[in-house]
Amino acid sequence: MEPWFSSGKWLLYAEIKDLEHFFFGIDVPFNSELLVVLRTKYGVELKELYRARSILPLQICHFGSWNKSCGFEGPDLEFRDRRNNLHGLAMKTESVHSIQAMNSMSGYNYSSIELVSRPEFISLPDISWGVRLSNGSWTGLVGAVQRNQIDVVAALLTLSPQRSEVADFSITWSDLNYLTIIKLSSKRDIHWSMFLSPFESRLWWCLLLCVTLTAVLLAVHYPTSSHPPGDTSLGQALLEGYFKAFGAMVCLQSQCIHPSFSRRLIILLAHLTGLVLLAAYSGKVVSTRTLNDFKLPFIDLKGLYDNGNYEVGILKKTTIHQYFYFFDSGGRWRRIELSSFQYVEGGWADKMCAYKWAGRVYLRAGRRRPQSNRTAKSGLLKEIYDSHMDHDANNHPGSLIEGLSKVCAMEHYAYITTYELSFPLLNKLDCRLVCLPEIFSKVRHSILLTKHSPYRKAINNVIQKLKESGVLKNIKIKTMGIAVAQPDLKDDTISGVELGTVYSVFLILISGALVSVLILAAEKIYHLLEHSL
Questions:
Q1: Alpha-carbon separation of residue 14 from 39, 47, 64, 330 (angstroms)
Q2: Which residue in 163, 275, 376, 499 could disulfide with 338, CB within 3.0 to 4.6 Å?
């Protein structure tokens, strides 16, 4: 049947006794409405006929009846509800994702298709996303749909006007955020202010005052405690008092026994005060250094460009890829001159951006931000391409896991991909990856079907019901796991303290040792000069 046959409602009046024999070899599309009027003893009966596929048996369903006493009695269900069963139809499909990634990535799409039909995966030589050639044909999965090699794509595809020319999309069933993922550096900068940050300035001044007051009291009690008057100078007593007071504040045990009760009382009070303050201080410092806190080198593409050290990669032969490149007549990827883009007002004003180039309009999903530095009009994408991207588009990652692995392997590599698909894989890699907070683009994804597919309405109906009932959200949680923002906890794994965490403490120890050596050398020189005189 031609596609126009499914656009109307057909009523056939005929004296037919055997419908299956009459319609043998005739394809009645799944999405068509063909009613056959059959005369009965009591009136008229209407039968609805269709086939799930041309080679499958004819489906004959009761539609309604009419008689003189009761009039017309029609169906209780609407058309979309009467076409919710494909009768075991195996829809040919393929995905760009590997078998290991099927559960988390295309498993979302696969589970949705599985609720409508029985997917049958076939092997194709080219399982890339697909790009448009100069003659209008497509490569990859889009090309397979265009040539009717497969019925549906079990992968996430972005809605685009170019793809809509050769294939049909279902209703939107997922919005995905494209973010920039970078590797979190294992090197941690030393912030010396962290040693003073646990206490506010007033507390530090109060602590210094307490140490000074304790040192003065110890200096006053020093001559009357264990030494006769005049045996030591006031300066020496005050200096020793400072060391005693500081030692008490940091809970150091004194080696000498003080015969004076007043001196013991001062040391005890200083020790108790220092015990409380030291516990509070050490707890704050340790928690600050051992927590997995980090500081991003930048938060958006503008910061990445200003940083100047990062190479940018994207999944090749995708809609996002075409922000920077296009496929020329010679079959080669070339960069789009982004300066030729013009911002187009109107359309989905709050959710979509449109760019016009060479007489064609390309939609880019995401919030419309005309003043943003991320737009092609500002030239930021062009600058990033010129200075941060490999000009050979074929050198970019061909899969999600390849791109994430490249981020781990390289110290300064940024990968633009979807957060929802990347999240389940972040904890399975041997490095720490982090997403920049800025959303590069927000795009809508749908199921890609063959052009004029008779199953589009059925799939749309199922997706809409899954959305309303919350089943689609549960499938998304089960297959992607994006609702649980917790890393996978491995059994019997203890996170140890790294050297970089306490590196600054060792620097203080080494610096103190060097200073003590310098002071010792100065004292030796002073005594030698004193004896020589």
A1: 9, 12, 16, 57
A2: 376
Q: How far apart are CA 2 and CA 8, in angstroms?
A: 12
Instruction: Compare 151 and 329 and report the one with higher pLDDT.
Output: 151
435 plus 408 within the same structural domain:
yes
Counting the structural domains of the chain, the total is: 4
132 neighbors 434 (Cβ within 8 angstroms): no
Residues 325, 180 within the same domain? yes
Burial class, 281, CB count within 10 angstroms (exposed 0-12 / middle 13-18 / buried 19+) = middle
Coil, strand or helix at 117: coil
* 507 is a domain residue: no
- pLDDT band at residue 291 under the 50/70/90 scheme: low
DSSP 395: G
Domain extent for 365: 175-187+295-446
Q: Across residues 444-458, what is the average pLDDT?
A: 84
Q: Are 179 and 419 in contact (CB under 8 A)?
A: yes
Q: Which two tokens stand for residue 462?
A: 């199922």
CA distances from 115 to 19, 89, 463 (A): 30, 12, 9
Measure the CA–CA gap between 212 and 233, rounded to whole angstroms. Answer: 18
Residues with Cβ within 8 Å of residue 418, at least 6 apart in sequence: 156, 176, 177, 178, 179
Share the mean pLDDT of the chain. Answer: 72
Q: Output the six-digit token pair for 30.
A: 């799944």
- What is the structure's pLDDT at 71? 87
Q: What DSSP line would sit under 197-240, residue for residue?
A: TTS-HHHHHHHHHHHHHHHHHHHHHHHHHTS-TTSS-HHHHHHH
Please give the Cα distance from 11 to 46 (Å, whole number).
9
Angle at 364 between CA 327 and CA 416, to 5 degrees: 75
> Which has more confidence, 340 or 295?
295
Higher pLDDT, 19 or 289: 19
